[in-house]
Design a protein that fits this description.
single chain; 340 residues; alpha/beta; Quinone Oxidoreductase, Chain A, domain 1; Rossmann fold; eight-stranded mixed beta sheet; six-stranded parallel beta sheet; 8 helices; 21% helix; globular
Length: 340
């Protein structure tokens, strides 16, 4: 039996009906939580570049019709019959990884981010561009006090995937390059600076506002992505979905260093000479997140403290938020808020 308050029958949602076309405003049924799910009233939902990849048809086989959005902050209003660790009134975050099988070899070896049978919020599961969403309780997280709903939203993907990328850079680094200074970069730069790293920010050529943003967040240097930094980097993280940045980052990274590709989608990587990979440089990708990533980030963020910079849009203006993100006109992160 589900436990909670009386609910409306329908809700407002912004829906992907056909990739490559604008989202459509719809009235759809409020979901009913399953035995192991929470029903969450959405207070805020971040707008992530992955939402763009889904809406633009760059990620294959989404659930259709689909409610996108996977940086969800909301209030539990109903819990499933087998849920005993959350209750109505709890404030929770719901991230990209929405379900894992718990049985495959990856799940059994603490690599649930590589699960053979996963489900993803806002891609294969309906997400947070709506007034309510249902979510697996295992992938819902209590959020730290001190963050408003809108400030917390970017932590749920930009923060989590960014943090996993940052972990992959290794502990023994001093100089970190970040390519693409958007939602993830502006969170991870703060953590890296807090931990004593020197951050080098790489932005779109000619984007002086993004360079100023990087410097304001503590970067010691900011320049065009086509430039070489003033000293070799120990590791580089590429958040921009631009494959041609990989050879550039390799050239900027010292021997023994790592280049991490932090996005779910990237344009093709061009061929490059072996000598820029030689000397034990590593190129690796980051896939999804784990619950460990979430616990660690949500613990460290208030200690920094990480300050997210957000631009707010009403739920019905989701297409405008996506358009501005697509053209690089968002500083920090875009967040959709519930309509009054």
């Amino acid at each position: 039996m589900n436990r909670g308050t009386e609910l409306p029958q329908t809700m407002l949602a912004m829906v992907v009906e056909q990739p490559g076309r604008p989202l459509v405003r719809r009235e759809i049924p409020v979901p009913s939580p399953g035995p192991d799910q929470l029903l969450v009233k959405v207070n805020a939902c971040g707008v992530c570049r992955t939402d763009l990849h889904v809406a633009d048809g760059e990620l294959p086989k989404p659930k259709l019709p689909l409610v996108p959005g996977h940086e969800i902050v909301g209030t539990v209003v109903r819990v499933g019959s087998r849920v005993d660790d959350f209750r109505p009134g709890d404030r929770v975050g719901v991230p990209w990884l929405g379900h894992t099988c718990g049985e495959c070899r990856f799940c059994r070896t603490d690599r649930e981010n590589l699960c053979d049978h996963p489900a993803f919020t806002g891609y294969t599961l309906d997400g947070g561009y709506a007034e309510y969403t249902a979510a697996d309780r295992r992938y819902c997280f209590l959020l730290p006090e001190g963050y408003s709903d809108t400030a917390a939203a970017p932590l749920l993907c930009a923060g989590l995937i960014g943090y996993r990328s940052y972990r992959m850079a290794g502990e023994n680094i001093d100089r970190l390059g970040i390519y693409g200074f958007g939602g993830a970069a502006h969170i991870i730069a703060q953590i890296a600076v807090y931990q004593g790293k020197k951050v080098y920010g790489f932005t779109r050529p000619g984007d002086s506002a993004a360079k100023d943003f990087a410097l304001r967040l503590g970067a010691v240097w900011a320049g065009d992505s086509t430039e070489m930094p003033p000293e070799p980097l120990d590791a580089s993280i590429i958040f921009a979905p631009v494959g041609s940045l990989v050879p550039l980052a390799l050239r900027a990274t010292a021997k023994g260093g790592t280049v991490i590709c932090g996005g779910i989608h990237m344009s093709d990587i061009p061929s490059f000479p072996y000598n820029i990979l030689w000397e034990e440089r590593t190129v690796r990708s980051v896939a999804n997140l784990t619950r460990r990533d979430a616990r660690e980030l949500l613990e460290i963020a208030p200690n920094v403290p990480v300050r997210t910079e957000v631009e707010l849009f009403s739920l019905s203006d989701a297409n405008e938020a996506l358009s501005r993100l697509r053209s690089g006109r968002i500083q920090g992160a875009a967040v959709l808020i519930a309509e009054s």
